[in-house]
Amino acid sequence: MPPTPLDDRSRTILMETVSNYIATAEPVGSRTISHNLQQRLSPATVRNVMADLEEMGHLHQPHTSAGRVPTDQGYRFFVNELLQIQIQNPAPLTGFPHDLKNRSLDEILESACSFLSTCSHQAGLVMVPSFWDLALKNIQFIHLTSGKLLAVFESQMGVLQNKIIETGEAMSQDHLNSVANYLNREFGGRSLKTIRQELLHRKKNEKERYNELMKQASQLWSEMFPDEQNAELLIDGLINLLDQPEFSENVEKMKRLMKTVEEKAKLVKLLDQCMIEDGLTILIGEENLEQEMEGFSLIAQNYRMGGEKLGTLAVFGPKRMDYQKMIGIVNSTATNVSEFLSKQ
């Protein structure tokens, strides 16, 4: 069943409760909320509303005599409200390094990861594109000796890769030029992954004449790029999480997190999920894929090159984070990275 809609008073009290808990990391009492609200409501009235919010699943009372803390559902309501504000009035962010012109992809993404962790005081995550996601700008084959050649690949982002290939047969430089021209003409601007799939498709397609030139192009391509590579994950500022009371006082929870981060594959899986989405992705507590991450939230945004999604960057930290600030940091960083990459 969908959650029960909140009236204005309940909404205001819930938003204030979550904001106060984020700021203090302490359960929030009705007297505190009554004092902070602009409209005059007695502690008793606030307490009754908080009890209703607890019954709806938005708040939780750790102890009978304690105040309330947000549940995952309460955080989700809070974040959804913030997103509406952010869409109408996006917060600008300054401070992103602007000396990255003509820097390599790795340098730009490493700077972004460091910037995310420094500004957020949480962990910064950046998924570096797999080499197979790079687009072909130019490929050349250079004759070395009989049965041996040098393949030189250049991506549209300026990434270079060289490899000596043993063909087992003699090929003249003119013939190698013809093979390279075929690949550049047919597949320029397309990703390595797409090119590999298309070459296999053409090879198997009985309707297309499988000529000698295409056969050799496919063989040389397979020798140049034999296996797909997984995306690399950059992590910066994980130690920042130790400053948060949720984890500094819970060693076991921190150990489980460290184990998850060391494996990296689970975080890559999480960011892969975000990569599928358009726009900002926010995963709160139990919405994360892994049980070890239930105490955490992740705010992610894709970065692009020329309008095409290239990777994902994110802030990762406790559920009790300053979501409004984090949303601004992640959005602004993704925008800046996309602009730098598109100008390369």
Name some characteristics of this structure:
alpha+beta, Enolase-like, domain 1, 3 domains, five-stranded antiparallel sheet, three-stranded antiparallel sheet, 19% strand, WH_DNA-bd_sf, Heat-inducible transcription repressor HrcA, transcription, GAF-like_dom_sf
Q: Write down the overall geometry.
A: elongated
The H-level CATH homologous superfamily of the largest domain, spelled out, is: GAF domain
How many distinct domains? 3
Report the total helices. 12
- The CATH topology of the largest domain comes to Beta-Lactamase
Tell me the strand order in the biggest sheet: 7-3-10-9-8
Structural class: alpha+beta
How is the biggest beta sheet arranged?
5 strands, antiparallel
Q: What is the C-level CATH assignment of the largest domain? A: Alpha Beta
* Helix share, percent: 40-55%
The whole-angstrom Rg is 26 Å
**Low-confidence segments:** none
**How far do the termini sit from each other?**
49 Å
Percentage of residues in strands: 15-25%
Number of strands: 10
Q: Roughly what is the average pLDDT, rounded to an integer? A: 85
Q: What does the secondary structure layout of this molecule look like, with pairings?
A:
Elements: H1 8-24, H2 30-36, H3 43-56, E1 59-60, E2 69-70, H4 72-88, H5 105-120, E3 123-128, E4 136-145, E5 148-155, E6 160-166, H6 173-187, H7 192-204, H8 212-224, E7 232-236, H9 245-248, H10 251-263, H11 265-276, E8 281-284, E9 296-305, E10 308-318, H12 323-342
Antiparallel strand pairs: 1-2, 3-7, 3-10, 4-5, 5-6, 8-9, 9-10
Helix pairs in contact: 1-3, 2-3, 4-12, 5-12, 6-8, 7-8
